Amino acid sequence: MSAFLADVTSLIEDYCGRDLDRRSGQSITLYPEGACALSIPARYQTFLTVTAVEQDSQAVTDWTFNGRQLTRDADWGESAVTLTASWGYEAVPASLKAISCSEVIRWLALSPGVESERVGEVEVTFSGANSAQTLSAATRTSLRQGRWRRGAVGSLTLRREGPVLDLRGPVVLHD
């Protein structure tokens, strides 16, 4: 079961293009293109904290970080930049845990070699002999709707059609 959860987590990370589990004190090597801004790949941007920056084995201290890129007054040149950083969720959001668990349950419910089953008018789809377990269409849709993909993580704006209710009492306000 834990192997399936690890597999699903890896597939979700690949699909979303970001690391979800917390990684602490890791090295990230980036290759600048001679500009003042050095972009951080989306994979590392989830709650990223940068503790040290080195270039050509020398500490760089004149940088600022805005959540998506490191900037400095002098350009970064062409040599590799190594960051010591931590990123990912301290605790994975419950919605991502639910998506992962439902995917594992789906995998466990299928017989080996069966890609999908349908009860009404009995339909079974068999996968090829070399196919690996993948994320279902429903999981991919949930991840897209949950805005977990490539830099889109944030809160959802919910709107309701109709009159706006004043929570101070039973009065209906008009738009």
From TrEMBL:
What is the species listed in this Swiss-Prot or TrEMBL entry? Streptomyces huasconensis
Q: What is the protein named? A: Phage gp6-like head-tail connector protein
